[in-house]
Amino acid sequence: MTDLRSNHWYGGNDRDGFLHRAWMRRGLPDSAFTGRPQIAIANTASDLVPCNRHLTEVAQHVAAGVWEAGGVPLEMPVVSLGETNVRPTAMLWRNMAAMAIEEMIRANPIDGVVLLGGCDKTIPALLMGAASVDLPAIVVPGGPMLTGTFRGAPLGCGTDVWRLSEDVRGGQLSQADFMAAESSMIRSRGHCNTMGTASTMGLLAEVLGTTVPGTAGLPAPDSRLLAQAHGTGKLAVEMVQVERRPSQVLTAASFHNAIVALAALGGSTNAVVHLLAIAGRLGIPLTLDDFDRIGSDVPLLVNLQPAGQFLMEDFHRAGGLLAVLREVKDLLDPAALTVTGLPLTDYLGDAQIWDREVIAVRNKPVQDAAGIAVLRGNLAPNGAVIKPAAASAHLLQHRGRAVVFDSIEDLHTRLDDEDLDVDADSVLVLRGCGPKGYPGMPEVSNMPMPAKLAREGVRDMVRICDGRMSGTAYGTVVLHVSPEGAAGGPLSKIQTGDWIVLDVPGRRVDVELSEDELRERPVAQAMADAVAKPRRGWELLYVNSVQGAEDGADLDFLRGATGHVVERESH
User: How far apart are CA 547 and CA 562, in angstroms?
Assistant: First the structure.
């Protein structure tokens, strides 16, 4: 076994060794400081992040596994982000959480780390931070909640919030019934039970090779998650002993496999910005176009909301992630390793589909070629994305008149105005919602239907935005438009009444203006007045340093890895 990093704190009989050991004893045995791997448990549990609250119990089982394997477990609370509560948007804080996690891993006397996350931004932040330090690291996803029901029907977290709220706006559901559903949606511990961002990133953490295979997708209340947590603690010690690091697991082959899986799962568009950001920390040249090149022709195999019918509890019962990956094994790169040291493809031989209504076989998919599509054109020179699996087929090729909103406040003020000049063929455009503009790139792209159209039964329209869409949402939404409006992108110059053409098969999104017309138009003053103008703190640092969506919306000075070495002593 290599010389432990922690020995640089705890080894020796000088003053510094005395100081580090003495303050850390607090009940630890003498043997804790004599060559035993120190394993941090980076825990995102928080009462303000309800999807992650149960991770404290998970941490206890990880710790038991670490002790059993001869290591010393040390719980390390880290920044946590709750998708439903944090304002102005949790995405504003993902990079801060990743930076804090990175620095705490590097600064402390640890040899490896177990990463506990659940809610949307926590697993991406944990992986970004761990990748930048490159000490042995392994993930335990917190898992989805069990299925709630309302009046005998299953409820999908997020997806049914959007659906039910539109039913209220359209007059098909009373306000009283809408409120009655609230107490039925969240049935148990765990994150959202749709194929939203939390489920997507938990599953992709396994596809990337960073979990014990067979862990991702286990429901949060399932006792097998605790057993897997115990095994993860044991494996973390082994990883330190053999020096198995993120840079050996998170390779170009791993990201290739993640893109294939993202398409087959019908996963969240948010995975695009997260995978780009993680790859950027490792120096892997992943680009937006790779998602189209690798994933666009992959069939959708998973019949889960928002692109389908079922929920995560059904997905696990039907065979789970490994069963899906077995169906597309020929599309996977066999060179990609997992934290066990074995290739991911080695774990697919015994995987079975137990319910083909939930997980389809390859030759009878839910949809053909349903992977995320990357669009370009004079509205999105640096790219935009759309999720065809969650869109309306008849709108994937569409020409409509723009109805432009300069901010989320403008949208809220005018959307339901009976005098708004809008019809079902219009294209709703919301700008000023990118990484710099909001700030933080919020999940507002899936704009509600104008009330007067909702009452007519309209449930989808083409919508275009430089922000993001909840992974639980659905609709024909072009999002992540780059350059964003606040950066002076073309989206900032279009006007209500301009004609917009969406051509998903042709991978285009354009406004019918000449190059000269578009160049000469000024940026909309109302949007410029509404975008973020921070004066201090994290928001100022973020707006001044954040990159575009096509680069993962990471901070420019955090690209690449720094490693784990800290040269100077603390005293």
Answer: 19
